[in-house]
Amino acid sequence: MHRDPLQTLAAALPKLPLAGASAEPITRGGSDRTYHRIRFADGGIVILMQWTDARPDNRKFIAAGQTMARFGVPVPEVLHDDPESKVIVLQDLGEEHLWDRRHDPWPAREKLYKATLDEIAKLHHVASDDLDDYELAALEPPFDASIYRWEQGYFFEKFLARYSHHSAEELAKLRAAAEFDALAEGLAALPRHLVHRDFQSQNILIHGGRPHFIDYQGLRFGLPEYDIASLLYDPYVPFAADERAALIRHAFRGRDPAAWRPVFNRCATQRLVQALGAYGRIVCELGKVEFAAHIQPALDGLREVLAGDDAPPLPTLQRLIAAEALEVPAIA
């Protein structure tokens, strides 16, 4: 259990002037970590993060941030790290997420999204030969066929098993379909670069007019198209078709569509499957029912991706996720 934030900060940094300080919980997100914005009497502000061993990637937060910063990727500065107490003090980058700009006029949103894609591209150019042994050892396991299969299983267990009207036998038959293995194996065979892993609007802060990235402890080698799909098919943010198309063109400018589009479509399929599994777990197991509002947009995105592919990677799933096949809770 996490301790009182001001007492925790006093124990970690006893020389800090905490008289008159206040702690404001930051509740956004589905993480098992806790965050507080600490406001000092003199006007200074820091972010206190407390983490647990519930997820192994929590221990990778510091190393991941250092690696990203080395390649010019904007992340918050670490002011204090106490791994024994599982306490990290971070630079405060403000409260404005990219998500908060989702209703802005399109020209302003487009500018921010293009800047975000340009910043993450710095990470996507990093290959294994660019990292030293320490950096390599501190990464999460790379995306491979087993991870893609795990994400697919997560979707079946945490989402379809709860929201589909199909029987367990029908779902087991679908899970055994060759198309899922083919998707996993095909993605795993492609060249990998560093990826954020959970690249969506609530993990991007706008500070000084520039996007900065947070929740990057899942840093690993994978496909850049997975990150791009995570951002542009983000269930938290609505896009008109022409808006999404403009951002996709920007992300892949100068590249042959025949080469990137099939990979992007398959990564979008895989990511949305993973996201639906995550929402099922967050809603049903963690009790954060507000996340149910994102299920329908994620389903709509998955339908769009599968319908827009000349050779959809999961045709059997495409038929199953017809609107009448699922019962999605209507929670605002």
How are the SSEs ordered, and which strands pair?
Elements: H1 5-12, E1 22-26, E2 34-39, E3 45-50, H2 61-70, E4 78-82, E5 87-91, H3 106-124, H4 133-137, H5 145-163, H6 168-175, H7 178-188, E6 193-195, E7 204-207, E8 210-213, E9 220-222, H8 224-232, H9 241-251, H10 257-284, H11 295-307, H12 315-320
Helix pairs in contact: 3-9, 5-7, 5-10, 8-10, 10-11
Description:
Helices cover 44% and strands 12% of the residues. It is built from twelve helices and nine strands. The strands form three sheets. It has a five-stranded antiparallel β-sheet, covered by helices on one side. Strands 6-9 form a two-stranded antiparallel ribbon. It has a two-stranded antiparallel sheet with strand order 7-8. Helix 3 (106-124) runs parallel beside helix 9 and helix 10 (257-284) runs antiparallel to helix 11 (295-307). It is globular. The mean pLDDT is 93.
